[in-house]
Amino acid sequence: MKKTQLIFLCSLVYFGTQAQDLHFSQVDQTPLLVNPAQTGSEAPIRAGLNYRTQWKSLASPFQTMAAGFDARLQKDKRRSNGFFALGLQIYNDQTGDLSIRTSQISISGAYHLSLGRNSTLGLGIYAGLGQRSIDGNNGRWGNQYNGLAYDPSILSGEPLPTAQFSFKDAGAGTLYRYRKSNAGSQSWVIHSATAGLGFFHVNRPVYSFLANEKERLYMRSTLFASAEISMKNTKTALVPLLFYQQQKSSHECVYGAAYRYYIKGSLSGKSASQNFLSFGLYNRWKDAMIGKVGFQVNQYQLNVSYDFTISGLSDLAKTQGAFEFSFCYLFGK
């Protein structure tokens, strides 16, 4: 029975990675992978690193790494009509015993139109070049069983016609951003809010290892919304978050909130500070509970999270969920 479960899990890994993109639980820490219109929206300069490892109990756990950088090309003056921004995103994802590897580098650009003193409307696009590879030598094929057990010395006779290929990728997005520098005289107020739609793989790139097939990558659409709700001259803030994405018949929904405690001063007013501790709890619908802790000191932010699998996959090979780490530098926020 255990062997059957492992075979099923490997099949799920293989076919699932053909049709779905990589994903991070800390969606607020991978802005360019969520929506290209987030380029330059959060700070004049932002640089981030992300690492995720999933199901470490397996022989070959999933590992995903990403690095992103974006910057505004002009100062965001209050009376200006808007500003341009450019970004760069790189990621590498490796899954399973066959070492199915997907790597991509993308350049994004966005323009954020000022709608007034506190809000902007942004439009962004990206273009990238990706590569996929697979190591068939690590696979186990049906004709390598000698009738009693698996024998790796038997030639599989299953060469992969295309063990590596490249593809071009493109997409776009739109984003609304609200930010208020002072909370005013009210009690609980919305200090900032972000909402946007992203569209990835709009060109439907060819995405198959098989030379005689024309499998194309399905377009992925995303919805992201977040806010920071603070109390004037206090040390606390609530940060709710909602993320939804769809790619063909695959859906993912992450929702929850983080609690922030400001170490010095508060979020607004004369004692405004950017130093805080953060504790978050999120749910990926019908899949996992996500616990996250983090802190920010001046322009540096660090977050660590863990996915507690609650779906049926937790019984397969005693999977141990996923660990995730992110670090970012925000200049001039």
- Global outline: globular
Give the low-confidence spans.
1-19
Order of helices and strands: HHEEEEEEEEEEEEEE
Q: Supply Rg.
A: 22 Å
Strand order of the largest sheet: 1-2-3-4-5-6-7-8-9-10-11-12-13-14
**Rounded average pLDDT:** 82
Number of helices: 2
Look at the helices and sheets and give the structural class.
Answer: mainly beta
What is the third-level CATH name, the topology? Answer: Porin
Q: Into which percent range does the helicity of residues fall? A: under 10%
Main sheet: strands, sense, barrel? 14 strands, antiparallel, barrel
Q: How many discrete domains?
A: 1
Which strand-content bin applies to the residues? over 45%
CATH superfamily: monomeric porin ompg
Q: Can you tell me the CATH architecture? A: Beta Barrel
Instruction: State the end-to-end CA separation.
Output: 54 Å
CATH C-level: Mainly Beta
